[in-house]
Every structure is written in C-alpha cells, then in structure tokens.
Write a structure and sequence with these properties.
Blueprint: H1 2-20, E1 36-44, E2 52-58, H2 60-77, E3 78-86, E4 89-98, E5 101-112, E6 116-129, E7 132-145, E8 155-158, E9 163-165, H3 166-173
Antiparallel strand pairs: 1-2, 1-7, 2-8, 3-4, 4-5, 5-6, 6-7, 8-9
C-alpha cells in the first residue's frame, strides 16, 4: 500500500504545484499556465526508475480552482507559509503537518513564460513519513497544445493510463 500511495500522492500534489504556488501576495504576477494540455515529468531522489510521466488538461477556471484548493489544503495543514517572488521564480518555505509528521519544505518554481515550468520540492519529515525522512521531487512541465477530445479541464492521465479529474478530487475533499 505504501509503495503505491506515495507516487500517486506526489503526482497529485505536483500537478497542483503551479496552481498551489499562488498561496500569497505577489504570486498573482507570475505567469498563468496556458490553457490546454500539459505534459509533466516527475522524478524523486532515490527512485532509480524512469520519471513518472503524466498529462493534465487545464483551462483558466480549472487553474484558479486548483489554486483555491491548494490554498485550502495549505491553510489546513501548514502553520508557516513564507513565499517570495523574484521575476518568474517563486520560492516557498512551508511547515506542514501530514498525519503525525511535520514536514519542513522548500519549493522553487521557475516559469518560462506561460508554456513551461520547473518545480523542485525538498522536504524533511519528522518523524519519517511513509518511511522517508527526506525527499526531493522535481517536476518539468510543458504545454503541448490543445486538450484532446477525450480529456476535459481537470483531467490528469498518469503514465500507466489511469485518468482522474482533479476538479472532482478537489470537490470530493470538501464533502
């Protein structure tokens, strides 16, 4: 169970990263992701396998909803949110409680216009979370074009073809 939970959780969280980055003042000046299909490659230090690939379809409404969801999660779980923006780079230092662990993290999200970004999250967990004390997750993402006809805004397709809708996931957490 633990082995399957962590990659799924990271994929979901990292799909939200660029939207969740808008957690504070000044971040509204960062580029908004271009509507359409985004391809993401996510790697975690210590994982010797190939990067986890996923695709997500977004529009302006979905991006805003995901940002609001990220803000709500951060408000519930995090006691500290220190956010700095310099040009097209956002740096977030956060202290959050996940289960019985406290996570101290530093995230950097660097945008290349509104069609690409690179995010890196370094976290320390005390006590260890799912057996990990430290983690580094990196995501490279790029806009690839319009969403295909079989995807609607909010749809995320994992590398193994599992499709979930992040909007539905966020809405379900409010119940």
């Amino acid at each position: 169970m633990k082995a399957n939970l962590l990659p799924t959780a990271w994929l979901t969280v990292t799909a939200l990263l660029p939207s969740a980055a808008a957690l504070g003042a000044g971040l509204e000046d960062l580029p908004k992701r271009k509507p359409g299909l985004w391809e993401m490659s996510t790697t975690s230090a210590g994982n010797k396998g190939a990067p986890a690939m996923s695709k997500v379809c977004i529009d302006a409404t979905t991006d805003r909803e995901l940002m609001n969801f990220g803000l709500g999660v951060a408000n519930q779980l995090c006691s500290k949110r220190d956010i700095k923006v310099s040009g097209t780079v956002a740096t977030l230092n956060m202290v959050c409680t996940i289960g019985n662990s406290q996570s101290t993290s530093r995230s950097t999200i660097a945008y290349t216009g509104n069609t690409a970004y690179r995010a890196e999250v370094r976290a320390h967990f005390e006590p260890p979370f799912l057996g990990q004390s430290d983690s580094t997750t990196t995501q490279q993402a790029k806009w690839t074009g319009p969403c295909p006809s079989d995807m609607k805004p909010g749809d995320l397709v994992t590398g193994n073809g599992v499709k979930i809708n992040l909007r539905d996931l966020a809405a379900g957490s409010k119940k």
